[in-house]
Amino acid sequence: MKLSTVTCEEFVAKLASKEPVPGGGGVAALVGALGSALGSMVGNYSIGKKKFLGMEAKHQEIIDKSCELYKKLLALIDEDAENFKPLSKAYGMPKDTPEQQAEKEKVLQKCLIVAASGPIKMVEYIYEAIMLQEELVDISTKIIISDVGCGVQFLKAAIYSAKLNVDVNLNSIKDEKFVNETRDRINKLVNDGADACDRVYAKVVDILK
Q1: What radius of gyration, in Å, describes the C-alpha atoms of the chain?
Q2: Coil, strand or helix at 208
Q3: What CATH number should be reported for the domain holding residue 56?
């Protein structure tokens, strides 16, 4: 069963249960998808409005990219769940002998890198969605500008949440080069993305005064 296609009620019930997935990674992807979808909606309501005539190409670009990103993020709900399964099994491997310990550690290291890959992509996609919202805020009809503010708040929560899921895996990975390069790149995307969310939200609040 694909987690991305179950009902909202089923998803939340699974999340609340003792089942290993969905977890924080799947929720980060879902919330990011919702934030991106709000950008598409605002673009659809703003395109062709008299105030923004001549901006149709930019609106359409934002709509298309936002749709592409929310679909990628929805797909990551299932990818993240699948990537966690081998890691879960690896943690249960025996470690009674030095040979078993060495084999378990070898398998764990491979599985941790795979498990980190989904959240890493989440951060990248969510950052892209935030940049689209920053373009959108100045060319959005006022009647729906509040949804830009909602969108960036969802995306800010999602990018922070995805980062935590990157960090929890990086903390156990022993490849220092991979860890340092990944951490530096992810931290920059998260910090820059969060700052952009704050700028966009402040604009929305100012417009709605």
Answers
A1: 20
A2: coil
A3: 1.20.120.680
In a domain, 10, yes or no: no
Residue 102: CB atoms within 10 Å: 11
Global pTM reads: 0.95
* Neighbouring residues of 163: CB distance < 8 A, sequence distance ≥ 6: 119, 123, 186, 187, 190
172 inside domain: yes
Specify the number of domains making up the chain. Answer: 1
Quote the domain boundaries for residue 67. 22-91+125-207
Q: How far are the Cα atoms of 67, 119, 173 from residue 204, in angstroms, in the given order?
A: 22, 29, 41
> 91 is written with which tokens?
């943690």
Residue 197 near residue 35 (C-beta atoms within 8 A): no
Residues 9-40 have pLDDT tens digits of 999 999 999 988 999 999 999 999 999 999 99
- 56-88 pLDDT, tens digit each: 999 999 999 999 999 999 999 999 999 999 999
Structural tokens at position 54: 């001549």
